[in-house]
Automatic annotation (TrEMBL):
The keyword Nucleus does not apply. The keyword Nucleotide-binding applies. It comes from the Bacteria. This is ATP-grasp domain-containing protein. Keywords: ATP-binding, Ligase, Nucleotide-binding. SUPFAM superfamilies: Glutathione synthetase ATP-binding domain-like. Transmembrane segments: none annotated. It comes from Streptomyces sporangiiformans. Residues 127-321 form the ATP-grasp domain. Gene3D superfamilies: 3.40.50.20, ATP-grasp fold, B domain.
């Protein structure tokens, strides 16, 4: 607590800190938020169903714990009744909309008064709103996980994903009705995303967009967008969409991207809060992939901090508290290069981490697995085992530096022995 200011600067509530089933990490955006709140002299409140998992890792950063089922806005509203907050937020996909709905019910200054019940966690509802407002959009259709699939509802190839999904879980490319049926069946077998977060049981089928996958990162403050910069991304080979590298810089990627992001936020009535806005730069301009009404995660917030010279988590809290923003000073580009699990099995060896960490331009290497641990290859972003964080003058240079360092790391995964008696 040594970095806490002597005079409290407000009371910030966080609804959960980690994705469902995830273990605490000092590098998560949730922990970055707690540390930023401490720097601002804020009292921190964590609303969670998982205090037992969080407290050993972040207890010194939390003033008050409120325990409740966080999968329902009604239950969170009941749990925080009578509490005073200057802001109530979440930077975790399944909970971000819930926190924003509760903030609206509490009448907080940082609320979104036009927010629908459940927020915009439904990707189909977002697509429908874009159509209603005449914004550039993909062709799309909804598939119920329990209905028979007899044909492709949009022209192939299509991207199939849960309407309430995150981290590319159960996201797959389908080129035929047979592949679509397989994707639907796989999702139908999923009973939970973890931590009692249950799937809605519907998938969105979108015609595949052609062009670079990019993002705009920033926040909305009373309807005005503060955009910190943009990322470009590389993906795994089909049929999955694992992000294998992400490079952030303040340099623009497309002349219409920021205006398009602003138009989408306006159409959704998203006036306050951070956003992670993904789009494909097509021949007709940017087209939305998805918008997450939260601070970007998976380590990308660290790239933003390094490339802008200020904490994006602190910028969000300053916006919530009505404080002046820190002045960024752009400094090149920063890339995360990921190492993914080749298949399910047990981690046998991890070598080369220190060699990668000592490489020129590398800021950090983060491994989320240890020798002996079991890893599961699912075709989603949860397959990522390790990342290298590196900088350069441009996105291309930072990516090359990060990927070259990542090649020095060897994570050996061995398959489990076959059970010949099964």
């Amino acid at each position: 607590m040594a970095d806490r200011l002597p005079h409290p600067g407000g009371r910030i509530g966080f609804v959960e800190l980690l994705p469902p089933g995830a273990m605490p990490s000092p590098h998560s955006n949730g922990v970055a938020g707690l540390r930023a709140a401490r720097r601002l002299g804020c009292e921190t409140v964590v609303v969670t169903a998982h205090r037992h998992r969080l407290e050993p890792a972040v207890g010194e950063l939390v003033d008050t714990w409120i325990g409740c089922d966080t999968t329902s806005a009604d239950l969170v509203t009941d749990a925080v009744a009578g509490q005073r907050f200057d802001a109530l937020i979440s930077w975790v996909d399944p909970y971000a909309g819930i926190a924003q709905e509760v903030a609206t019910r509490l009448g907080l200054d940082t609320a979104n008064p036009d927010w629908p019940s459940g927020g915009w966690n439904d990707k189909a509802a977002v697509r429908a709103r874009l159509d209603d407002h005449g914004l550039n959009n993909a062709r799309w259709a909804v598939v119920n996980a329990h209905d028979p699939v007899t044909a492709m509802p949009v022209p192939a190839p299509a991207v199939v994903k849960p309407v309430d999904g995150f981290s590319s879980v159960d996201t797959v490319r389908a080129t035929t009705p047979v592949e679509l049926r397989g994707a639907v069946a796989d999702h139908r077998r999923r009973s939970s995303y973890g931590d009692a977060v249950t799937p809605a049981g519907r998938l969105i089928c979108e015609q595949e967009l052609h062009g670079p996958l990019v993002s705009a990162e920033g926040m909305a403050v009373d309807g005005r967008l503060e955009i910190w910069g943009h990322t470009d991304r590389t993906l795994s080979r089909p049929p999955h969409y694992i992000e294998t590298s992400v490079a952030f810089s303040t340099e623009p990627l497309h002349p219409d991207l920021d205006d398009y992001a602003a138009a989408v936020c306006k159409a959704l009535g998203y006036r306050n809060g951070p956003f992670h806005f993904e789009a494909v730069l097509t021949d007709t301009g940017p087209v939305l992939v998805e918008i997450n009404t939260r601070l970007v995660g998976a380590g990308i917030h660290r790239a933003i901090d390094l490339a802008t010279g200020v904490s994006c988590a602190e910028q969000v809290l300053r916006g919530c508290l009505g404080l002046p923003f820190l002045d960024p000073h752009a400094d090149g580009a920063v890339c995360l290069a990921h190492i993914t699990a080749p298949f399910s099995g047990r981690v046998d060896t991890i070598d080369g981490v220190e060699a990668a960490r000592q490489s020129a331009g590398v800021h950090d290497v983060v491994c989320r697995v240890a020798v002996g641990e079991t890893v599961t290859a699912t075709g989603s972003n949860t397959d990522r085992l390790c990342y290298v964080l590196a900088s350069g003058r441009t996105r291309h240079q930072s990516r090359r530096t990060a990927q070259n360092a990542a090649r020095k790391i060897d994570i050996t995964v061995v398959r489990p022995p076959e059970n010949h008696f099964a």
